[in-house]
Amino acid sequence: MTDLIDSRIGIRNLGNTCFLNAVLQAFRITPAIGRIFLTDNPHKPRADSKRGRLMEAFQTLIRDFWRHIPTGQVSVMAPNGFIHAFHMTLRATDDDWYVPGQQSDSAETIQYILDSLHDSMYRRVGMDVTGVANTIEEAQQLRALTSWSDFYRKEYSDIVANFHGQTQAKITCSVCGTISERYEPWIMIKCPIPGANIVGGPVPILKTCLDGAFDSEDIEDYHCDICHVKTKATLRTRISRLPPTLILSFKRFTNDNLKVRGKIEWDLESTDFTPWMAFPRDPFKGGRDHPIYESYAVIEHLGSARGGHYRMYGRQNADWIEYDDDSARTIPSESVITGDSYIVFMTLKRSFEHDKKDFAEHIRAIRDANKKIDEVAAPA
Fold first, then answer.
1. Per residue in 214-252, is it b (16+ CB within 10 Å) or e — as a string?
2. Contact by Cβ (8 Å): 301, 342
3. Model pLDDT for residues 318-362, shown as the tens digit of each residue
4. What is d(CA 313, CA 291) in angstroms, rounded to the nearest whole number?
5. DSSP class of 46
6. Quick one: what percent of the chain has pLDDT higher than 90?
7. Tens-digit pLDDT profile for residues 203-231
8. Would you kindly state where each structural domain of the chain is located, as residue ranges?
9. 2-377: which CATH topology?
10. Measured distance CA(318)–CA(244) in Å, rounded
């Protein structure tokens, strides 16, 4: 059944759109995207959303990708309708981070597309946080859940459920020890590259980069509400919620408009985020299972901070496929991670096989429906 996911489709470059093609390829093989958009009843955007045109075009493109029945050759699609909707939505929302016809950044593109899909689909939901905390940790977990509920109860979507995470930030006063907390949602973990400022220095592994993303930080001029004086404090950040689909990017571009190259190693099969979690027990789902993720897509940026080219490496069953605009070829897994790896898509390892089977069921259903339409339309 999961062989259905092996469909290999190139995307035509329509004028410096490799940054977008790489993103669309990663979304194309994301099980959560299939679960959301390959439904029997296509989604309709909210009437007052300025981004509804983009959501409809994205949904049409994803369905067109998977309606196609593989022939054994690499097929090529030109996403003209989506590109048009992308440009129109940028204009409607007065967003100027991308100028049509110019090269842009894949990480910003991911953020913009997911934000647009959420804006087009969100709805009010009921979220009630109940229970009594018996320990300090349980009180923190309740605050994490309450913060999530307060932030999303009026604007919740399948994008939030599948792609949004939450960070806990704790500030500890050095004088009285009082701890204050805040919880912040996010859609991507942005990892610094420790030692990036050292020319010729050693390249860190992913664990070191994650340590840098969730490191403790000294605050020299902190105003404590208990002490009522300015003093020193320590800020410590941890992950309070990990989404089913996790997107991670490396900070390869510096404020000096330079690019940091270097092969940051990690295990494509297994990345355990336990060291950076706020709680040993997941307050959102319960249980104490280790949050182990498996990588299934990697976007690579070739070139400098002033320009370059994007490719996507996607795992489809046992194979890794290199998607380079309209071309696609099988590569060994050892070639996936390079000195230019930029963005990583991960999913929970314990549910990956189930998610792929569910994805394949959606693909089969949409192909069967398309076949029936063709049969009805065929002349007698």
1. beeeebeebebeeeeeebebeeebebbbbbbbbbbbbbb
2. yes
3. 899 999 999 999 999 999 999 999 999 999 999 998 999 999 999
4. 23
5. -
6. 71
7. 999 999 999 999 999 888 888 888 888 88
8. 2-377
9. Cathepsin B; Chain A (3.90.70)
10. 21
